[in-house]
Design a protein that fits this description.
Number of strands: 8
Shape: globular
Strand order of the largest sheet: 1-2-4-3-5-6-7-8
CATH topology: Rossmann fold
Helix content: 25-40%
CATH superfamily: Alpha/Beta hydrolase fold, catalytic domain
Number of helices: 6
CATH architecture: 3-Layer(aba) Sandwich
Order of helices and strands: HEEEHEHEHEEHEH
Radius of gyration: 22 Å
Length: about 260
């Protein structure tokens, strides 16, 4: 009886060790996969270098593309999506600067801005960037995914200098209504985006102002708004990343040109 009683706890202890090891291995592999999925991929290094058309500036808080020709009355303020590096949006946004509009990409604290204090810091970074460009008369405030939620908070909170709002790949606003906004608003969503599904995007229509322009990118998904890996839970795109970003960029340029009038 003693031998049987001793062997049973040992078996249980060994089983617990194997479960703990298995969980640890799963956690490590999942973390590696998650980090790799958000890694910037396929960005031409020339997009991050200054040339005759635009200057490039980067620090811990921003990535900026400044047109060589000064005098633009409107500029783009863009919030990164959670976990996504600012460089991943260079293919989408550098052509905006090449078209003559300054672009400031706001980096999220700790890449994910996990706490409300981090989100507040991202909004403070945006306000500082806008104040640092006194020659800009109006800002098109935009963002992707969680970045779009921050853009909505900035515009909805009466962000000084905001002239238009463009929400990309997001179901926001969710709780706070933007229906009273009088500025132009556009919402860009992708048909195969399973992170911000079209059905949930449209379900929040009542929280947007009546003048909102809804733009669906047929065949696009969530991750292809930037240049990074396959995002967990996302759908499969049936159009190229370049085609999807070209359509999204057209909405941004339209907002910038309209705000300049």
């Amino acid at each position: 009886m003693d031998a049987v009683a001793t062997s049973t706890p040992r078996k249980r202890s060994a089983a617990r060790r194997w479960i703990s090891r298995g969980f640890l291995a799963w956690a490590v592999l999942s973390s590696v996969w998650l980090v790799n999925s958000y890694r910037t991929q396929g960005v031409d290094s020339r997009l991050l270098q200054a040339d005759a058309r635009a200057a490039v500036r980067e620090d811990a808080a921003y990535l900026e593309f400044q047109p060589a020709a000064p005098g633009a009355r409107t500029a783009l303020l863009f919030f990164c999506g959670a976990g996504v590096a600012a460089q991943a949006y260079a293919p989408l946004l550098r052509p905006v600067a090449d078209a003559g509009f300054p672009v400031v990409i706001v980096k999220l604290p700790y890449r994910f801005a996990p706490l409300q204090s981090h989100k507040a810091e991202a909004l403070a970074r945006a306000a500082s960037a806008m104040a640092a460009h006194p020659g800009v008369a109006g800002w098109v405030v935009a963002g992707h995914s969680q970045g779009a939620a921050l853009a909505a908070r900035l515009a909805g909170g009466g962000g000084r200098g905001a002239a238009a709002l463009v929400l990309i790949g997001t179901t926001h606003p969710k709780e706070h209504s933007l229906a009273a906004l009088t500025m132009p608003v556009a919402k860009v969503y992708a048909g195969n985006d399973d992170v911000a599904p079209a059905a949930r995007v449209l379900a929040n229509w009542r929280l947007l102002p009546p003048q909102t322009e809804m733009v669906q990118i047929v065949g696009g998904n969530h991750a292809q708004f930037g240049h990074y890996g396959r995002q967990l839970g996302d759908g499969a795109a049936t159009i190229t990343r370049e085609a999807q970003q070209e359509q999204a960029r057209a909405v941004l340029l339209k907002a910038l040109r309209r705000a300049a009038l």
